[in-house]
Amino acid sequence: MSFTGLKALLLDLDDTLIDNPMDTFIPAYFRALETFVAGVVEPGRFIEELLKATRAMDGNNGTGLSNEEVFAAAFYPALGVPREEVEPLLARFYGEAFPRLAPLTGQRPAAPMIVEWAKRRDLQVVIATNPLFPRTAIEQRMAWGGVGVDCYDYELVTCYENSHATKSSPAYFREIVDFLGRQPGECLMVGDNWGWDVVCAGKAGIPSYWIATDGAQPPEPVVEVVGRGDLDEFLTAAEAGTLEENWAQHVDRGLTV
C-alpha cells in the first residue's frame, strides 16, 4: 500500500515530542511568574486572573477572536493595573525568567527523527500543541526538546496568537485543516492526551495515534486509533511502513468519532 493519501502530520508537544509533565512544569511556571510580577501585581491575584483568562480561552469556539484576544479581554481589565504596565513586564518574563525553566524539559531522541521522517515523506508537519501560551513560550520549549523552529521548517506551530480555539474543541483541529488546505482524512494526529488528541481530533474527522505507556487504558469514550505506543514505537512503525498501512485502513473504514 502506498503512502500517497497522508498529507499532514500533527504532533502534540508536551509529553509527546518532549518530556514536560504539566504537574511539574505548571507549578514552577506559576512560581516564576508570581515572583517576576510581584512588584506590580499582587501575586495571588495575578495567578487567579490568569487562570480565569485561561478558562476563557478554553471556551473560544474558533469563529471570532484569537485566543490571545480572548485572554487579553478577560485578563488585563481584571488586574486593576494598566495593561501598558503589565504587557512589557510579561515580555521581559519570557525573555529573562522563562528560559530558566529549561531543566524541567527533557528530550526524546525519537522526536527529531520523526520530524525528519515526515519531511522525507513530504508531509506537512504541524506542532499541534494546546494554544494557551504565547508563541515564544512554545518555541522555547520546542528548542529545549531538540525540535526547535531553527532546526525544522514546520508548516504551523499553534499558539495563542494564531489560534481561535483550544484542543478541548474540534474547532481547533478544523482550523488547522483549513490552514493546511487539506481534508481531515489526509491528516494524522499524534499525541498523549486521550480527550484532546484522540477524541476531539476524531470529532473533527482526523485519525489519531495515541502516545501511551504499556498497560494504559483509554478512558471513555472508546475510540479506535491508528495505533498506540510510545514515541519510539511510533517511529518504528513509521519506518517499517506499518503505520501507513494502519492509517490507510483506518481512513478507508471511516473510523473517526
The helix content, as a percent range, equals: 40-55%
Overall mean pLDDT stands at 92
Q: Which CATH top level class of the largest domain fits?
A: Alpha Beta
**Remind me, CATH topology of the largest domain?**
Rossmann fold
Topology order in helix (H) and strand (E) letters = EEHHHHEHEHEHEHEEHH
* Corresponding CATH architecture of the largest domain: 3-Layer(aba) Sandwich
Query: What is the domain total for the residues?
Result: 2
**Computed CA radius of gyration, to the nearest angstrom:** 19 Å
Total count of helical runs of at least 4 residues? 10
Quaternary form: single chain
Walkthrough of the structure:
By secondary structure, the protein is α/β, with parallel strands linked by helices. The chain has 2 domains: 8-20 and 106-253, 3-Layer(aba) Sandwich (Rossmann fold); 23-102. 48% of the residues lie in helices and 10% in strands. The protein is built from 10 helices and 8 strands. The protein has helices spanning 22-37, 43-58, 67-79, 83-96, 110-120, 135-144, 170-180, 194-203, 231-240, 242-253; strands spanning 8-11, 18-19, 106-107, 124-127, 156-157, 187-191, 208-211, 227-229. It has a 6-stranded parallel β-sheet with strand order 5-4-1-6-7-8, sandwiched between helices. The chain has a two-stranded antiparallel ribbon with strand order 2-3. α6 links the parallel β4 and β5 (156-157). α5 (110-120) packs parallel to α9. The longest helix is centred in the first third of the chain and has 16 residues, at 22-37. It is globular and about 55 Å long.
